[in-house]
Amino acid sequence: MNSRVTLGLAGLLLLGAIIAGYWGLTLSRQPVVEPAAAPAAVAVVSPNAAPAIPVEDPTRQPVVVLLRDIAPFVKITAADVAVEKLRTAPAGSLGAVDQVIGRTPWRPLSAGSWLSEESFEAGSQLARMIRPGERALAVAVDEVINAGGQLAPGDYVDVLLFLRKDESNSQASAQLVVPAVRVLVVGSQMGLTNEGQPASPARTDEERLRQDQQRMAARSVVLAVPEPLLSRLMLASGAGVLRLAVRSADEQQLAKYWAGENDVATRLDTPRRDLLEFSQLSLTPPPRPVAVAGQPGARKPAVEVIRGAEAAQPTP
pLDDT tens across 253-270, in order? Predict the structure, then answer.
């Protein structure tokens, strides 16, 4: 082959290689175009579509609750109450605002409390803590009588009486005056009403701490005394020194009371309750002396009549 032809072919191949290399370099420097992101799906809401209605829980029950404090003898308006859905409605609670609007409570009602028919009944908080046949009686106490300041509303106590020896009492005595009476109030701290609600609830930790301090420093307690034993306790409070003995919570006396049994004090009371009988408290006359056969009766004092120098005892 002619050398010139060979040189021409070599030149063409070299030129093609240069063109191919330049083309490859140019393609490698071009920016990579990323694919455009797909547009997000846009929910099309029809202007005539109705808003979604929340599904109510059928297990919740309506309860009328106060939105603000209500003073006594002030009518309740629609702005004072609201209906809340609770899983468990309190016993006796009202479920519609129509049942309370326009009604007048006889006592102050606090915001956040649920309303019932008892909310519109007359009577103080203390009067609503006892049942028919019971009386609320206050007794003065100190740290010793108050069981070291540990008494709390709802406890059951025995009322004891100590009589010192004096001119009217030949010997010291101690006895049980009234057994198993319920403590209603200690100082200013009150227990539960007959509706099962706290009469003076503590809303904050500070209020709870203040109530505990007042309870420990109480100077009086209020007891729920059965009516037949009321005069006996009143007489005992003026006859001597009282003591309050706390009964065990394992007796379940408070649970029995809420179950309807409120006669525990009269059932446990007996004519001869304890050590030495105090006739006025036991409501029985003192025993009369009984003459024993064979013993001479007591002689009546003789009257001596003196006439001058003569003395004589006239016969009856």
Answer: 988 888 888 888 888 886
Q: How far is CA 137 from CA 142, 183, 186, 204, in A?
A: 16, 10, 12, 30
Average pLDDT of the chain to the nearest whole number:
76
Residue 129, exposed/middle/buried by CB under 10 A (0-12, 13-18, 19+)? buried
210-255, pLDDT tens digit by residue? 777 777 778 889 999 999 898 888 888 888 888 899 999 999 998 8
What is the distance between the alpha carbons of residues 105 and 79, in angstroms, rounded to a whole number?
16
CA distance 211 to 126: 17
Where is average pLDDT lowest: 38-42, 142-146, 159-163? 38-42
* Rg from Cα positions in the chain: 47
Q: How far apart are CA 27 and CA 110, in angstroms?
A: 83
Give the whole-angstrom CA distance, residue 160 versus residue 31: 103
Instruction: Categorise residue 233: left if φ over 0, alpha if ψ from -120 to 50, beta otherwise.
Output: alpha
**The token pair that represents 303 in the structure block:** 């009257």
C-alpha to C-alpha distance for 259 and 140, rounded to whole angstroms: 30
Query: Which class for 236: exposed (0-12), middle (13-18), buried (19 or more C-beta within 10 A)?
Result: buried
- Look up residue 279 and give its two tokens: 């006739």
